Amino acid sequence: MNKLFSTFKTFLAASSVLVLAACPSGNSPQSKPSTQGQNTVSHTAPKPKATVALALGGGASKGFAHIGIIKVLKENNIPVKIVTGTSAGSIVGSMYASGMSPDRLELEAEILGKTDLVDLTLSTSGFIKGEKLQNYINRKVGNRPMQQFPIKFAAVATDFESGKPVVFNVGNAGQAVRASASIPNVFQPVVIGSRKYVDG
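Given the sequence above, the corresponding structure tokens read:
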């Protein structure tokens, strides 16, 4: 695990960290034209602050390598304001956005590897229900809905019928992560409302 983290520290520059900064239309001070005998008023627009967001991808167990990136950001006092994730990235992202420290995430990753989250079922749509994963995530985030997380979070899944991506950023965190991580033909599609969702 530590070797994996070291590798990702090396490739931090190529990671999925997105720095989103709105740039003002003009960086130089703006002043009104003046005529002789009148005061000149200068207006300078305040420079907006950059917002750091993480986009965490999938990759089964490799998705937990994202924890290495999170640790590097923490060590360098770089605050993350937004986290999005798909598949394994949504598992890590949901726990981090809920307030878990990088060290705790690392421990949870080790525990998760030894935890039985496979709830087998006989079905042509998938042989794993995914309910255990949903309940696991909800326990780890304190059974809070996503909109109550200290860091803004969104899980990305795919509409089973249309194939279009869908973003979940409010409501049941475990259910959203389950939908995002439901690999077709392995996990059963997750029904939310009247729609079915699978791994994005």
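DSSP finds six helices and nine strands in the chain. Try to locate this feature in the token string yourself.
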